[in-house]
Each structure stands twice: as structure tokens, then as C-alpha cells.
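Newbie here. three chains, one complex. Structure please?
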Amino acid sequence: MKGTPKHVIVAGGGVAGMEAAGSLAEMGYRVTLVEKGEDPGGHLLQWHALFPDRRPADEVRSYLRKRIVHHNISIITRTTVEKIKYHPGGTVSVNLSGGTDEKADAVIVATGFQLFDAHRKEEYGYGIYDNVITSADLEGMFNRGRVAKADNSVPARIGLIHCVGSRDEKVNNNHCSKVCCVTAVKQAIEIREMLPSCEIFCFYMDMRMYGPYYEELYRESQEIHNVNFIRGKVSEASVNINNRLVIKVEDTLAGRPLKMELDIMVLMVGMEMEEAGAKLAEASGFKRGINRFLETGDHHYGNNLSGVRGVFYAGTCTAPMNITDTISHARAAVAETVRYLDGR
Amino acid sequence: MSLNQANKFGFVINPSRLIDYDSSDRKVRDYVTLREPSFKLCFACGGCTAACTAGQHTSFNLRRMITYIRRGEIEPLRDEVTRCMLCGKCLLVCPRGVNTRNVVAVTAEAISKLDRNEL
Amino acid sequence: MNSEFFITPFNLGLYFILIYSVVRSTVWFRNLSRSDKLRLQRGFFGRPFMDSLREIFMESLLHRKIFRKNPVLGYMHMSLAFGWFLLIVFGTIEADFFGEKHLNPPSHAIFFRWFNPEHGAEGFARIYNVWMDLLLAFILSGLLLAVIKRFIPGMVGMKKRTRHTWTDRVALISLWLIFPSRLFAESFTCGAHGSGSFLTGNLGAALASFLPAAEIAPWFWWLYSLSLGIFFLLLPVSRYFHIPIELFLIFMRNSGINTGDRSSSYTEVQTHACSSCGVCISVCQMSYAAGINDIQSVYFIKGLRNDRDIAAITANCLMCGRCEEVCPVGIELGPMRLIERRQGEREDGTLRLAGKYSLMRKRSSIEKIPTQSYGYLVREEPQKADVLFFAGCMTHLTPSVIVAMKKIMESAGVKYRFMDEKGGVCCGRPLMLAGRDREARELINHNSDIIWKSGAQILVTSCPICYKVFRESYYLDATVMHHSEFINLLIEEGSLRLGYLHKKVVYHDPCELGRGSGIYDEPRAVISYVAELQQASQERNMSLCCGGSLGNLTLSSDKRALIAADAARTLTMSCPDELITACPLCKKTFVQSTKTKVSDIAELVAAALPRPAVKAVKKRATRAAVKATGNS
């Protein structure tokens, strides 16, 4: 590459954004990484360990952190990208929150996902009952090194509810978030390791172990960790006189309704289009799918293309995906961006 | 070995044990599907049965009922279908937006038509 | 051509409709229940008769209600109805006063000008002629509007127009022809004889100046008589039958007859009293929000009248009751639809009353559905309580409502039992809405038994669906209260200490609580006590349905979503902090379709409770509450 380096703005400093920024910088492009939070890192910042091998999340975090330490990368935090516009001649203008504008030769949108707000599934009692938590809350407990009830007592039985906010027409999400099943299995094992006497039940509709070593993890959870699996969607939760949660579910394999007391109920919250990303899409005229994620140019061979010149998509702003796929997708976005910049 | 051969050699499979999909009568399924197309959407999560008001008191299982209808097994639900209270709680739970109350109503209708040879 | 033969069509039509009316009303009367017959007889000699006369004058002639809604449409109806009425009255007086003899047959009044072509040349008769012309002009102005309405509905402020049958169309044309033909008939006659006033006289003179008026006149008199005759003959099979039938309806209603829960003469009278005006279409959310345009009350009634297979129409209705609120004739559309849904319950599958008289039975025989049976329910022995709380099936899916109610009752020191804490038995209302009353009875008996045995004096429920059926179809000693009423009572008697939330909220009247049970003020009082209540554009008796209604068995979830989205948009127009409702079903439905926070009224009140829950014992207050309501 000769002359002044071309400038690429990456919107979003999560896994996809960091990987994309790192790759571009490495190749000599000038990159501005725009992150809405305090630090880049995205959802990974909250996570304790990762499936399928349960390696510490920190390992991936430090890989990504190193990736964006480069003289070609400037990072703007506490800022969101509000609008992206392509101008004939090749400049892409980007409006940032706070009123500043940036000019670039290309933009990679990596605004990511947000976790489903479990309050919206009122029948599960999140925010109503103390011991109903989300999978993200549980990761927080793992980080603090202690899984306990709200009154600080040790739970004897924990239920993990799959598909909360996914595959559910009632919350306008028909899509599958893909990673919750394996996350549940991973978290079930982690709880068992921390609290060997705690019974674990996963309430699932389908076990979607789609990635390498996921099915093996599922098998391990049964074989070594005695995790129980009940096929049925929990319809509602209440609290009994002993202040224990009571859930209602059908054990569909036994064909009968089942009632169970739990000490902690973990809601495996799914992935939704991130709100700032949705606003950006709205303002910039990006197409969105019926699942509300960004609609890519082609599902098979163009899933980094935005339909707007000079704008490319990376990561979970296009669909739910795991970290492995997100990193691959980000690299593919970089490849598409470079091809576009070189071809101009 | 085909079923016929099996019979010849004295191995008789009790017909009530298996869902004989090839000879089962799926008229009820077709009728229900036509009258309430959302019937097709059920993915058997059991949310309806978990929430079911009647199901707490008696054997009424909408999820199983739908499966039976799909397989052409009508006898097991003949009695069960009359136990629903139509309260509609399942309607608020169903993640697939199946119009559950109408599935029950139309199934009852279909069975009575079947009995009158009108299906 | 002085033959009077042309009056025959008119006479035929008139005597036909008179005899028909007498026969029909006799049949209706005979088919009334004993008590309704008694009501009618008593009404005839009492106040109801006078009330009816007044109502007939105000509504059937002046069309006051329509006038208020839409002055142009009101004028159109008034000029036709009241104008025609005046024309008949003054025509009869004219014939009686100026005619050859007193007590003439009606035709003499109607065709007065033909019989007295020279009449009205001078004196009082001359002034009277001006009056008669004025009346004719009045009617014709209304007719002009009617023609405009037919072809350009928007010009008279109509959004939707109903579809008409062929008999309706022929009747319509004959109705339209009546007054223009009278105008020309009178004008030609006047033209030939040099008589008539400002309208007929001038027009007659003008026409006679270039046309052989005397020869043409009889043709128009024929047309006049024919159009009258055809109109009368078609009256019973056209939508215009509503004109005479409405008089019956008004009298029956004023005598205290109502639809009840069984098909009767009254339902049939209501069927015929519908004018197919289509107001029910324009307020129907199924129409304007979900694009379903063939199930509205006007089509339901039309199907009923013409004995068609209307099972699908009958089932596909939210039962929200908005149409009933605006029906200018006051037809009890909700109860009528429920009766029709109940037809499925009948074992013999007999057709409706109307079916017995119609020549062609187009309806298919009614489905015989296996009856639901709840013999499996086990009788319970409840614990005694003053206040019994019944959350309802749906409320178990909105636990925040239950938690809020518990907090409120504990804070107020109410001693209560939670009747369906572990899940109860359905109240029976959903079955009733599906037309299965007999089966609902079983559930009603089961729950009644528990409520009686508990000895409760107040039954509080969080579900308006349960509330309605508890109040209307349960025989209970306890006072039934929706939780909004109960909270209001607790506030009024001072047993609930509440802070003020600095929030702007808008309140949604749930159908079964508002229109269904008339509870509008208590929820508003409660809300205003703890927050700032904003007005909604559609509220109280015109409140919208959330779309989640159990009244509709067949509506798909995507259509429901359209209705919910539209209703939520309308309600949150003023950008409130929260959308407050008082029904778990409404809450669940709205949560799906708006970004505004949706809360139940109980949650709002619970949020206004003092933070560290003061568990002051206020047993005395509760006892007072029990006494205050328990005695009623």
C-alpha cells in the first residue's frame, strides 16, 4: 500500500470490532474504533469462562486487547455512531454522538447484540422474585467466585431455563440465539464444580449443540457432572410460603405437567439487535431482517455486505453467533473492506 | 422381513402398540389444519400443558393432543378433548402463536363429525 | 285520462304492509315469554308508552343522535323521516279539511292534488299550499343528500358504506323515486290547471309552457303510486323494514324487555330494526386495525335476517362492545352474538325463529359438539376468610400483579385468603364467550361452592373477565369487587397510606371492566390519587380493545398484534410514563406491542406504598370495609 493510508472507521468495540480493527491496522490501514462503553471488550467483559472448553474469558480478552494496541488505531470511547452516509467520490461520513463528524474511506459496522431484557418475560418473575437471575447475572457470580441466593444462603437446586427471549413469538423473537444451549450446559457444569451438592436442571425445548465439541460438552455434563435435562418450556414461576421458587413446566417426554421447587432460576437470555445499532440502521437506511438484525447482501456469499457502498458488517449485528464465528466474520469483513478499497 | 412374512411365521405385532402411520386416518388432522392453520406451528414445547388450568386437575394435555392428531391417533383424545375449560391461559404462553383455544374447539368439532361420517 | 286506476299499486302496497305488520307483530307477541308479554301489556298503559312516543319523535323522526354525530347525515335522515311524516299528517288534514268529504281513504290524501287539481287558488288554502310545497322541498333536499351519500360517501362524512342486496337496491330506487315523481306529478297537474304554489306552481307553469302537461301528468301519478307501492311491498325484505320495526323496538325496550340469553321475538325485532347504517363498521378495530371487513355487526345482523350460514362471522368478533355503544338504534349486539354462538349447544339443531318462516333455508345445520364435562373437579374445603382474593388464570402469568396485590392488602392490614394461589378453576366466562353456557355452569357451581364455604364477605379479583362473570352469573353472598374497586375502598376508608408518584400515566379501560361492567370511575380515582392521569383519546365507553380478547376464538395472532399495536399507539399518543391497565390479558397484550412501560393499576399503587412496608395493624379498618360493602 502506497501513499497516505486509507481510513476505516469501526463502529463498535466488541469482539468483532476489535478483531476487525486489529486486522486492518496490521495491514497498514488507519483505523478509528468507536466504542460506546468505557472500554472496548463488549459482552466478553462480563463473562467468566467460555464454552466449549471453559477456558477463562480473560485469555480471549487479552488476545483482543493486544490486537488493538497498534499505532494505526485510535480509539474513541463513550461514543456511538449515529449515522453513516456514503458520498459519491468515495468518502463515507460518520456522525458520532456528541456532534462530531468523521470522514473515512470505509466503515465496518460491528455494533453487536444486546441481551434480551428478561423483564419482558414477566411470567418468569425477573425483577419480581429475588432468586430469578439471568445467565449474565450468573457469570457475574462466577466472577465473584460465589453462587448464592439473594439472602446469601447456598442453593440446593438450580434450574436453567433455555430459550428466554428466543424462539418466542410472544416477545417478537422467532429466531434462535444459538449460543444459549451450550452456555447453559457450560454454566451447569461450572455450578456443579463450585457447589458439588447442588442439583442442576436444564429446561430445554431442543438441545442445539451445533459447534465443535459442544455435543461432547453436553455429554460430559451428564456423564461427569450429573446435570439433569427436562424437555419442556417453563410456563410460569411463583414463590411459595418457604420463599422458594416454584416453576410449572410440562415434562414433555413423560407427557405430564411437572412442578418443581428451585432455589435459583437462571434465565438463559437470548440475543437481540443492539439498540444503538438499530438506531444507526434506522438513520442510515440499512435494511433489517424480520429478526431485526441487519440484513446482509447475501446469506451465503455476501454476509458482510451492507448494500451501501463503503459499509460492511461484522459480527453479531447481523445474527447471533459465538465468539469463534464472530472473529471469522470480522476477518471476512476486513477482507471485503480491503477488496473494496483496493478496487476503487 | 416384511410384516406379512412376520405374520406367517407367527410373530404378531400387537397393532395397538405402534402408530401405524400408513394406515392411520389423518382426516382430523386435515380438518383441524384447514380450520386453524396455526395448528401446524406447534413445536411441542409443552408450555400450554404447563400453564393449563384443567391439566392441574385431570389428564388434559394439549401438546400431546396435537401430536396425536398429527399422527392420526384419535381414540386417546376422544375423552380428553372435553376436559378443556377454554380459559385461554395457554394462548398467552405459546411461543409459536398457535391459536390453542380454537385448536381444542375445532378438534372437538372434527371428532363429532368423524363420528357422524361427515369428515 | 281521468281514470283513478293508478292508485291501485299504492293501495296494494299499503294494505299489504298494514296486514303484514299486524300479522308479524301478532306472531312476535305470541312468541314472547310470559313475563315479557306482561311487561308489554303493562307498558302499553303506563309510562313506557309515553316515553316511547317521545323517543320515537326524537330519534325515529328527528334523528337527534345521528344529528349530534354528523349534522349533515342527521339532516338527511330528518328531512326524509320527519318531512315525510309531516307531509302525511298535513296531507291527511288537507284532504280532510278541503276534500269533498271527511274521513277519506289514505289514497285521497296522498294523491290529493290529482283529485283536486284546482285547489288552493286563494285564501287560506293558498297559504296551506305554500306549506305543503315547503315540506316537499324539505324532503327533496334530504333526498339530494342521500343520492350524494350513495355515490360520494366522503362528502357527507361517511367512511364506510355497507354492501346491499338486490332487494335493498330496488327498494332504494323506489324510495328515491317517490318524491321526485310526486313533484313532477303535482307540477304537471298544477301546470295544466294553473294552480299550485311556489314549487309545484312555478315548475308546473314552466313545464306546461312547452309540454302537454295534462297528458304527461297521469304518467307521473302512475310512477308516484308505483314507487310507493313497490316500496311498501319490498319493505319487509329490504333494509328499510327497520323504519317501522324501530317503533316496535323502542316500545319493547321501554317496556323493560331485553335480549337476555335466549333467542326470542325481541332478538328478531332487533334483527329487523337494524338500518344497516354501517356506523358499527367504522368503530370496529377488526376493520380499521386488522383489515377484516366482513364480520361486523351489520353483516352479522344481515346474515341473521336472511338466514345465512354465519357461523364464521359469529365467532370472529372481539366482543369488545364498541359497536353497541354507537349503534343509533340501540341494538344489543353483544348479547345477540352470544346467543348465536350458543346455538351450537342445542342438541336438536333447530333453526332460529326466522328460519321457520323463510322459504329458503340457506344455513347449514348446526354443529353438534361433544359437551365439555368437568366431573373430574374435586370439591374443596376452603379456609374461612373475610376477604377472598381470586387472581384468575391469566393473572398467574403476570406475577407482578399478584405480588402488588399481596403488598397492598398486607399494608392495609386486610385479612385475606388467596383462593387460587396454587392455580384455581376457570371462572367460566371464556366458555360463555365461546357459547358454552351449560358447561360454564359446571365451573360456576364449583367456584361458587368454594366461595360460599369460605364465608367471605368480599370477593376481590384481579381479572375483569372473572369479575364480570362473578357479578353476573354467580349467585353469591359476597360482594364482588375488581381490585381497582377494592383499592379505592381501602383508600377511601383510610387504611392505605400512599405516597405520590411523580409520573404521568394514561389509563386503558379493559373491555370487560369498562363497557362490560360499567367500572370507569374507581380505577381513575385510584390512579389520580397516586399519579397524574392523562386523558386518552379513546376512553371510557369508547375505550379500545387490546386485541387479546378471549371473545374471539378464531382470530390469528398476527391480526391480534395489528389491533394491539394500533390500540397501544392511540393510547400512548401523549407519551405517558406508563400505560396503566387493570386486566392481566390487556397487560400481556400491550407489553408485546409498545415500548411504553405497561403496568397494572395494582402495581402502580404498590409502587406508591411507603418504602419500608409499614405493617400497621388496621384490623378495625378492614372490618369497617367488610361491613360497608358486605351489607349491600
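Moderator note: Chain C has 30 helices and eight strands. The beta strands of chain C are 387-390, 416-418, 458-461, 479-482, 504-507, 532-534, 578-581, 597-600. Thread marked as resolved.
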